[in-house]
Amino acid sequence: MNQKNIIAAYSMIENINEIKSKLVRAIKSYQKALEACDPEKSGAIYALVQNNLGMSYMKLASIDNAKENLIKAINAYKEALKIRRIDTHPEGYANTQNNLGTAYMKLASIDNAKENLIKAINAYKEALKIRRIDTHPEGYANTQNNLGTAYMKLASIDNAKENLIKAINAYKEALKIRTHEKNPLKYFILQKSIGDAYYELSFKENREENLSEALNFYQRFLRIEKEIDGYMYLQTMFREIKNKIQTLKSYGGKME
C-alpha cells in the first residue's frame, strides 16, 4: 500500500469514528429524553423519540455491532408503535412500520434470514395500508421498492418462483411513481432490480421469455450512463449488467 492509499485509509477510519461518535451521542441524548418523558402524558413525543432512537441504532449498526444494534433498533420501533397506532397516528404508524421492515431486512442478512425477511415483509405491508399511491405517492414508492427487495432476498431461500413474481410486482408498483421524468436515478436503479428478478425467474419458468424481459430492463438501466453524470459508484453495476447482457445475447439469436 503506497503512502497515498495509507493516508486515504486513515482518513476513512477517522470519518467512520467521527460518525460513530456522533451516533453514540445522539443515542445517549434520546435515552436521556426518554427518561424524562412520560408516554402516558406525552405519547406523541415519546413515540417520536423512540422512532429516532431506532433510526440512530440502525445507522450505528452499519458500522459497529450490527446484530446488537439492529435488535435495539427493532425494540425502539416496537416501543414507538405502542403509541403510533394505525387508528390514532396513521402517518407515524406507516413511517415506523417502514423503518421496522428495513431493520428486519438488515437483520436477516445476519441472523434467521427467512424469519426476519417475513417480518420485514409484514411490516412493509402494514406501512402500505397508509402509504397508498393516491395519498402518499413517494412513501408508496419507497415502501414498494423495499418490499420488492425483501421478496427478492426471500426468493433466494424459499419459494423462489412465487417470491420473485411478488418482487417484480412490487418493483413495478414503485415504477408508477419513480418515473424517468420525475426521478431518473431511482427509475434506472429499478430497471436493474426488475431485470435481476426476471433473470432469476428465468431459471424457474419460461426461460426464454423471462430472459428477454431481463434483457429489456437491463438495456434500459444502461441508458443511465448517457443520461446521468457523476455517479461513479454505479460503475460496478454497469460492468455486472454489461456482462449479463453479453451472456443473454449469446443465449440465443431470438433475444437479440
Describe the structure.
The chain is mainly α and about 260 residues long. It folds into 2 domains: about 1-130, Serine Threonine Protein Phosphatase 5, Tetratricopeptide repeat; about 145-255, Alpha Horseshoe (Serine Threonine Protein Phosphatase 5, Tetratricopeptide repeat). It has 11 helices and no strands. It has helices at about 5-35, 45-60, 65-85, 90-110, 115-130, 135-155, 160-175, 185-200, 205-220, 225, 235-250. The mean pLDDT is about 90.
Number of strands: 0
What is CATH's topology name of the largest domain? Serine Threonine Protein Phosphatase 5, Tetratricopeptide repeat
- In round numbers, the mean pLDDT is 90
Rounded to an integer in angstroms, the radius of gyration calculated over CA atoms is: 21 Å
Shape: elongated
SS-based structural class? mainly alpha
- Bin the strand percentage: under 5%
Q: Unreliable stretches, pLDDT < 50, 5 or more residues? A: none
Q: How many helices?
A: 11
**Would you identify the CATH architecture of the largest domain?**
Alpha Horseshoe
Write the element-wise H/E pattern from the N-terminal end onward. Answer: HHHHHHHHHHH
Helix content: over 70%
Count of all domains? 2
The CATH class of the largest domain is Mainly Alpha
Largest sheet: none
Distance between the termini: 44 Å
What is the CATH homology-level superfamily of the largest domain?
Tetratricopeptide repeat domain
Write the layout of secondary structure elements.
Layout lengths: L2 H33 L7 H19 L4 H18 L6 H19 L4 H16 L8 H19 L4 H16 L8 H18 L5 H16 L1 H4 L7 H17 L5
Helix pairs in contact: 1-2, 2-3, 2-4, 3-4, 4-5, 4-6, 5-6, 6-7, 7-8, 8-9, 9-11
